[in-house]
# Entry
Amino acid sequence: MANRRHLAKLEKGKEAWNQWRADNPTVKPDLRGANLRGKHLEGFDFSDADICGTNFKGAHLQGVNFTRAIAGLQKRWKILLIILALFFSVIAGFFSIWIALLLSFLSDPSDTESFIAGIASLISLFIFLFFILRKGFVAGAVAGAVAGAVAGAVAGAGAVAVAGAVAVAGAVAVAVAGAVAGAVTLLGAYLGWRSFQGDPRDPWIRSAGVAFGTMGGTSFFDAELAGADFSQAILKNSDLRAKDLNHTCWSSAKKLDLVRLGGSILSQANVRELLITRDGYKKSYQNANLRGANLAGCNLEQANLKYANLSEATLTNAHLKDANLTEVQAVGTDFTSAYLTGACLESWNIDHTTKLNNVDCQYIFLLENPNLLGSRERRPHDPERVFQPGDFTKLYQEVINTVEILLRKGANPEAFRQAFQQLMANNPNIHPDAITGIEKKGEDVLLTLEVPEATDKAQVEHDFQENYKAGLAAAKEQARLAGKSEQQAEQIRDIKEIAMALANKQSDNVFQVNQENIEDKTVNQNHDQSRNINIENSTVNASGAGAFNQGDITGTVANTINHGLTGIDYSQLDLPQLLAKLKETIENDTNFPAEDKQDSYDAIDDLSTASQEPDQAIQKEKSSKALRTLDRIVKLLPPGAAFITIFKEISPYISSLLGF
# Structure
């Protein structure tokens, strides 16, 4: 029974209890058999407590410390269960005797009917034993029944012949009957042992045995155990069919295989082992349900987590080097300070609730298997470069907070204007600068918007599409009245219309669009919201405030729209002057991270060196590599960095002077 003084301390509340525990570290609370059903015990310290037989059904145990606690059965319940087990053994003995008596019919061949029944029973029994050992209890039962029916039919058809042929068997029938009784008893023991070794053929035997063993044991049935800590606890003969086990710690917990687990993630043997040992090195958890699992600090290097459900799990400080995270569900997952270098993130599912703070990652792969070019799409692309601290989080945070909207058969300017105005009216946090990309996909246009973290992305897409369809229908009707074709009403002939409208955006005005031109203007009292756009080689690149992250509005556009807002005609400068301008901008740009400056200077020097290379092939190779390096640095810069604008304006002229 529980110690009454300890129960009295418990009734005083969490503050008093935890203070008593702190003042008496050597005292081990005795809560054996206590009825704490439905109690609010959030944050209590039950470390080292004896909770054998304690009833925590429906209790609120979030964040409770059960470290080194001892759960399970009290002595009186152990004795009772032993008695019950002996009773069931007696019942099983009677069943064995019944089988032996049935087979004893073989002792009297003169009684043909009984003798045939004995033969049929013997055949059925052997087939039953064979299948139960190979396929499981259910398969054995079915096979035995079928075999018995067939054997009986055959035996009845040839009764006279069988009676003569097996007369000698009568002498050994009694011995067979006795042996069968013993065999059935041994079979039961063997099946029980086999099921508890994890044999999958008769899981119900294990489930029944565990359920029987938890009668009177510690019960957490329907309890709230989120964030509880069972490190090193002994949990044998407990009922852990809790309502919530999210983020519960099972590090070094003992006897979890002898606990009633229900349908929780602990019912998966490999997951249970991972949660206890914290070591998943090179192991497979493909398709595993790890939802809400506490994997903080786990070693998952080279682990296969393909298709696994990691939603709401915590992997803080987890070691995921070279892990396969292909198509994992990671919504609401906490990767804070996790090590992700070399991990494969192909099609992983994350959103704004996924935490990527302080992730330690030098590079990742976007493909599990190499493509036709032998590439696994490493990021960064350059094998000689790695992410700098914060780069990984920055890149994926941008992806998380974007909405992509596909406009079929081009984008109608008037419909676009109406849809975007309505979107801004319904969502005050969305403004013209939210447009981060407009990309042409064949006959379609892909619009990319940057939105705040808590935005309902599905609703944003739905609202824009519905308003766009309404505007498009109106535009078609206007075109019909004006005698224009439907195709003229549906499509922008050149995606450059929207791009140039964004380039012409000025402050202190509203978002305005007409059929001939689209002007994107927004109010900002603190700083200029102008955006610079280069259209080159079928790509429109934007920079400055609200710049296009990927630099990609793709259309059928040629040449370069001159020299932006700087007032400098870069076409009149030679290569050394252009490179000097880049260095000058880096030096004076307060938004340029110090750790990226040296890499940028080195890339600019490489461009200067390449220009002096007599071999054109080598010159092109070195120049391309240097420009790619600068382009990657630009994509990682904060939106206000002046270098973004200058580089976008100057790079086409540098490329031209270098001959490509």
